[in-house]
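Q: Please design a sequence for this.
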């Protein structure tokens, strides 16, 4: 039940380029090189995101990508 409420909010934050945990802008996070044209971004709160430079979208990193 909670997932149905939280998922749209997290998707909205990611579409605006904000962290789903603390709400800070992800472009201010620590950037690193990813695979296949992506960037690995670590927020100040410790959450890890992947930025796809082709589609210009953020997503949460998978366990394999961490």
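A: Design:
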């Amino acid at each position: 039940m909670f997932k149905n409420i939280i998922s749209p909010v997290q998707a909205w934050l990611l579409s605006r380029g904000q962290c789903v945990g603390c709400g800070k802008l992800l472009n201010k996070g620590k950037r690193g090189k990813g695979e296949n044209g992506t960037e690995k971004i670590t927020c100040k709160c410790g959450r890890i995101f992947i930025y796809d430079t082709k589609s210009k979208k953020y997503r949460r990193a998978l366990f394999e990508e961490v």
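Q: Thanks. Anything notable?
A: The chain is about 20% helix and 25% strand. The longest strand covers residues 38-42.
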